[in-house]
Amino acid sequence: MTSAARTITSADPGSDRYREAERSLWHHYGLEPNQRFVEVSSPAVRLRVVEVGSGPPVLFIPGTAGTGPYWGSLVRALGGYRCLMVDRPGWGLSAPLDYTGIDYGTVVADLLRGLLDTLEIETADVVGSSIGDLWALRLASRRPARVGRVVLLGGGPIVADSGIPGIIRLIASPIGAIMLWLPPKPARVKALMRRAGHGASLDAGLIPDEYVRWRVAFERETDSMRNERAMVRSIVSWRTGLRTGIAFEDAELAAIQQPTLLVFGTADPVGTVATWRQVVDRLPRGALQLVDGAGHVPWLDDPTSVAGHISRFLAT
């Protein structure tokens, strides 16, 4: 295996306030993760990877809902695996990447392949969430020898029929530039989470205050939302939806041979149960698992159930 990247040990670029919010949320989940920074050469970008547990490697790719400790309740319940949580470029503590004028699917697959090379992992199972679903499937499609099984959590821009979440369309619009200047507050974070289907869990106290405080610090103390807007505008038109070539065509889905599980919460506003049944039917080895009442980030509402579905699937 040819290495496309190297591990680097320079200082953590996050602010002290953001790092403290991360530590507080990890502590809430009773976890003490290790982190490292790696430099991928093609495309050239510096990434952060956070690691929890030991066993067979599982690569986690986040969506716009968060990164790092937002996986905490899931990986705590998912024993027996080496959970490797990457910050996408420009998101969390990873350096940004210019997506302008590139083949998005190719760049995504090359970047994740380079990351696996750096970590000296020949083959890994891959878990995606939201737009991370698209990344996971692109890696499986373009670099099939590197992927064992694929888990997709929540709806994502896999097919054009899934639609674009309202918040993503808003980020892509001119109003998105104004949003970046609005001071992040707990009330706004909770409002966005309610729109994503997590209102019942917020009302029941299932989502800890540490999570909300971390989200506020994430938006306030990092450049993630500014970088995410730049990426979103490269793949989404706020008027018409996903740009051509981003989502999968039926023939592309039919060519993916890895066993693939999609875990979808019935309160998730991205796509519908019918949409995702059609998607998994197009995958030769696809399966759909519903989580009643869960939102766009289903493990926030029911980490035990979601972890159980993943564990059984990966162990099959």
Task: Please give a structural write-up.
The chain has helices at 16-28, 72-77, 104-118, 131-142, 166-172, 174-179, 186-195, 199-203, 209-221, 224-235, 250-254, 273-282, 298-301, 303-315, and strands at residues 5-8, 34-41, 44-52, 57-61, 82-86, 124-129, 147-153, 236-237, 241-242, 260-265, 286-291. It is an alpha/beta fold and 316 residues long. It has a single domain (5-315), classed as Rossmann fold. Strands 1-2-3-5-4-6-7-10-11 form a 9-stranded mixed β-sheet, with helices on both faces. Strands 8-9 form a two-stranded antiparallel sheet. Helix 1 packs antiparallel against helix 9 and helix 3 (104-118) crosses helix 4. The longest helix is centred in the middle third of the chain and has 15 residues, at 104-118. The relative contact order is 0.16. The model is unreliable at 1-11 (pLDDT under 50).
Brief descriptors of the model:
single chain, alpha/beta, Rossmann fold, 14 helices, 41% helix, 19% strand
The CATH class, by name, is Alpha Beta
Strand ordering within the main sheet: 1-2-3-5-4-6-7-10-11
The count of β-strands is 11
Kindly report the CATH topology. Rossmann fold
Mean pLDDT: 90
What is the first-to-last residue Cα distance?
27 Å
Q: What is the CATH architecture descriptor?
A: 3-Layer(aba) Sandwich
List the SSEs and their pairings.
Blueprint: E1 5-8, H1 16-28, E2 34-41, E3 44-52, E4 57-61, H2 72-77, E5 82-86, H3 104-118, E6 124-129, H4 131-142, E7 147-153, H5 166-172, H6 174-179, H7 186-195, H8 199-203, H9 209-221, H10 224-235, E8 236-237, E9 241-242, H11 250-254, E10 260-265, H12 273-282, E11 286-291, H13 298-301, H14 303-315
Parallel strand pairs: 4-5, 4-6, 6-7, 7-10, 10-11
Antiparallel strand pairs: 1-2, 2-3, 3-5, 8-9
Helix pairs in contact: 1-9, 3-4
